[in-house]
Specification:
With about 300 residues, this protein is an alpha/beta fold. The chain folds into two domains: about 140 residues, lpxc deacetylase, domain 1 (Ribosomal Protein S5, domain 2, 2-Layer Sandwich), CATH 3.30.230; about 160 residues, lpxc deacetylase, domain 1 (2-Layer Sandwich), CATH 3.30.1700.10. About 20% of the residues lie in helices and about 35% in strands. A hairpin with a 6-residue loop joins strand 2 and strand 3. The longest helix is centred in the C-terminal third of the chain and has 14 residues.
Length: about 300
């Protein structure tokens, strides 16, 4: 049986927004059982935005949530850190419209969470266990979830680019594997798209310090990849964050082919509408948290 988890103490984080370029401050606080992850826009009169599928309003180049017309963008890396470390309940106070991009990965958030400590809460967490396959397709992109004894993501990525072409990876999602194999993987983009993005008011805070940038033939950052397949690892990281929006840990195998934020969200909506294809369970055979990360409360 896995109990719900929150933080042992508050976390403060400051950084620049990837798309807005704004300097943004966050304070992440422990939250009671059954709270979930809740963003609070302190610069907008403390408007609460629940991290859930019903709050998703945009999936263009990032996942954006909203409530009462107040938005929180680029939430996927922080949500991935929460999910990868089994943090179920937290209040995220934030004074701007998007989560800071930090270095383009989830690692800065993971380090802060581990430093603060993870606290068990005296109530079990429910899981969604997939009972039969569910598939979503859009053009040449597909994503599916199938029954699996654990939580696993298999992702295939393909670009006609000399720097990497096709990458494929399968990962069983445990806290230790998330920390070591996924959290450090950074977001990436193409230099040819920068002007288009900025003309749309996006990527104003993007730089070589918070993204891998690809030119016509090479990685402009130089030979500084954290993994030889860092691109597909980051795509899996994004998927971990987006899938967390279903509101419960998912017990199944997600298989994605050239997918992204939009298909991730469409899959979640199809899962929730396919009620006979899954069940709630409270005691799946999940792997324990990394040793030393958890304190009992």
């Amino acid at each position: 049986m896995r109990l719900q988890n929150t933080l042992k103490k508050e976390i403060t984080i400051s950084g620049q927004g990837l798309h807005t370029g704004n300097n943004i401050n966050m304070q992440i606080n422990p939250a009671p059982r059954d709270t979930g992850i809740v963003f609070i826009r302190t610069d907008k009169g403390n408007i609460y935005v629940k991290a859930g599928i019903n709050s998703v309003v945009d999936t263009t180049f990032a996942t954006t949530l909203a409530s009462e017309g107040v938005k929180i963008g680029t939430v996927e890396h922080l949500l991935a850190a929460f999910s990868g470390l089994n943090i179920d309940n937290a209040y995220v106070e934030i004074d701007g419209p998007e989560v800071p991009i930090m270095d383009g990965s989830a690692l800065p958030f993971v380090k802060k969470i581990v430093e603060a400590g993870i606290a068990k809460q005296a109530k079990p967490i429910s899981f969604i266990r997939i009972l039969e396959p569910i598939v979503v397709s859009e053009g040449q992109s597909q994503i599916a979830v199938t029954p699996y004894e654990g939580t696993r993501i298999t992702y295939r990525l393909f670009y006609t680019h000399p720097a990497f072409g096709e990458q494929k990876l399968a990962v069983d999602i445990t806290s230790m594997k998330f920390i070591k194999e996924l959290a450090p993987a950074r977001t990436f983009g193409f230099l040819r798209d920068v002007e288009m993005l900025r003309s749309r008011g996006l990527a104003k805070g993007g730089s070589l310090d918070n993204a891998i940038v690809l030119g016509e033939k090479e990685v402009i950052n130089g030979n500084q990849l954290r993994f030889k397949d860092e691109f597909v690892r980051h795509k899996i990281l994004d998927a971990v964050g987006d899938i967390a929006l279903i509101g419960f840990p998912l017990y199944g195998h997600i298989i994605a082919n050239k997918s992204g934020h939009t298909l991730h969200v469409k899959l979640l909506r199809k899962i929730l509408s396919s009620r006979n294809s899954w069940e709630y369970v409270s005691e799946p055979a999940v792997m324990p948290l990394a040793s030393g990360l958890v304190a009992q409360v």
